[in-house]
Write a structure and sequence with these properties.
251 residues, 4-stranded mixed beta sheet, 8-stranded mixed beta sheet
Length: 251
């Protein structure tokens, strides 16, 4: 499984990512988008644009991007042995119209990771910025905007398109190609709505759990602790929305 980073710090113009080193991984490519659909990409009928690479980092490196260095920020006395860290300003890479899907600092970031490994020393898709496929990126990590945690149990609103997977079946875990995303903190309440007039929506609260069916034009609500990993798919492409209450704190 391709890892996603922990978010050690997120404030205005500032984000720090942390990976725990894996001896089989040589480096990480950080890719971002501005919506669930764009983070998923064009695959399986979703029709998103796809992620854009913003930088690479080698295993064990502590990276401070140019904007962070110019501000004199990101210097830490932490012991970082066994870790890979990157600190950057999201606005450093927000450059419309050149970067069409990179979000600005004041919005959610939909992040995915590619890795190069001992077995495959080059990044998928080649030299930076490279390309991507449906299966060579991590799950989607939703990173909060700087003001997200200013209130207790902050709410997260999402909208997207379920990928069409012919093998998807309620009662079984989702087949490869499902949309998997993690939220900024553990979810403790949720409302999910299937907006399609004919197609069912399939949902699971973790990758190892069986899919449940949400009928057309139906909403369900749930209130209890859930993992920070949610799974969406269908046999078609219904649109869905989610309103999620999260537990205050960094993931």
């Amino acid at each position: 499984m391709i890892p996603v980073p922990s978010i050690l710090d997120r404030s205005k113009g500032y984000m720090t990512l942390q990976f725990i080193n894996d001896p089989d991984i040589l480096g990480y490519r950080i890719r971002v988008a501005n919506s669930l659909d764009n983070a998923y990409g064009v695959f399986n009928g979703v029709g998103g644009v796809g992620t854009e690479a913003i930088f690479d980092i080698n295993r064990g490196q502590t990276l401070r991007t140019k904007a962070i260095r110019l501000k004199g920020l990101g210097v830490s006395g932490d012991i970082t042995r066994g870790q890979t860290r990157a600190t950057y300003d999201p606005n450093e890479f927000f450059d419309p119209p050149t970067t069409t899907v990179v979000p600005p600092d004041n919005q959610l970031t939909f992040m995915r990771i590619q890795v190069r490994t001992v077995a495959a020393p080059a990044f998928p898709g080649g030299a930076f910025p490279g390309t991507f496929t449906a299966l060579d990126q991590s799950k989607i990590l939703i990173v909060q905007d700087p003001r997200f945690f200013e209130v207790p149990r902050p709410a997260l609103s999402l909208y997207g398109t379920a990928p069409a997977l012919a093998a998807a079946l309620p009662g079984l875990p989702a087949p490869p190609g499902e949309m998997i995303f993690g939220v900024p903190a553990f979810a403790d309440a949720m409302v999910i709505t299937n907006h399609d007039a004919a197609l069912p929506l399939y949902f699971a609260s973790a990758t190892d759990q069986p899919l449940m069916q949400i009928d057309p034009m139906t909403s369900i609500s749930h209130a209890s602790g859930m993992k920070d990993e949610l799974v969406i798919c269908s046999t078609g492409n219904p649109n869905f929305s989610m309103l999620i209450s999260t537990v205050t704190g960094m993931r």
